[in-house]
Each structure stands twice: as C-alpha cells, then as structure tokens.
Amino acid sequence: MEMHLVHIKNNMSIEDALKESDGLVVMSFIIKKTKGNNQASGWNILAKFLKDIPEKGNSKNLNGEFSLGSLWREADVHHYFYYNGSLTSLPGAKSVILFVFAVPLEISYQV
Length: 111
Description:
By secondary structure, the chain is α/β, with parallel strands linked by helices. The chain is about 15% helix and about 30% strand. It has one domain (about 1-105): Alpha carbonic anhydrase (Carbonic Anhydrase II, Roll), CATH 3.10.200.10. Strands 1, 2, 3, 4 and 5 form a five-stranded mixed sheet that branches. The longest helix is centred in the middle third of the chain and has 11 residues, at about 40-50. The two termini are about 15 Å apart. The relative contact order is 0.29.
C-alpha cells in the first residue's frame, strides 16, 4: 500500500498552487503489512474512525483525537528520493515536488 500526504504551498488555494511548479509537496510512504500487533496507536485510531464513515460523503468529527503525524512517527525520514513531477489525476498539473521515503512503514493488519 502507499500513503500520500499532500501539502499545499503556504496561503495558496489549490487552484493557485496548481499553477506553480512547486505548489504542492507530496510525501509518499510505502506501507508493508506485518503480523503481530506492533502498529502505532495512530493507525488504530484511524482504523476506528474509518469504520464510522463507510460511505462516500460520510463524515466524523475527530475531536482532536487524531494527528496525521501519528501515522508516520516511526518513519525513517532521513532516507528518501525526491523529484519534480505532476499530479496523477486530472488536470495532471506539473506542480508537484514528490518525496518518496525509501524505508517502508511496517503496519500490523490486526487492529
């Protein structure tokens, strides 16, 4: 599995960011499924919330219980590749700097 965290350049709308060569930064993490119960609590919290929003258009108030940072707290952020690229979906704007982290995050499939 792969997880992308997409960031928009400071104080820009998505429309304006798509016009810039560095308007978006994407952090890409490869996820490796492991046995056991070694996963960070952030993944458990995310799984719990996702069970509560099974359909498109559903929403759930997180009440400050969840942080994106908790998903990659254990990541090796010192080893990565980066390149200028484009969106893989329409409009395919060439406005992305992509960081691909070399070491997969190991996440238990047991929650």
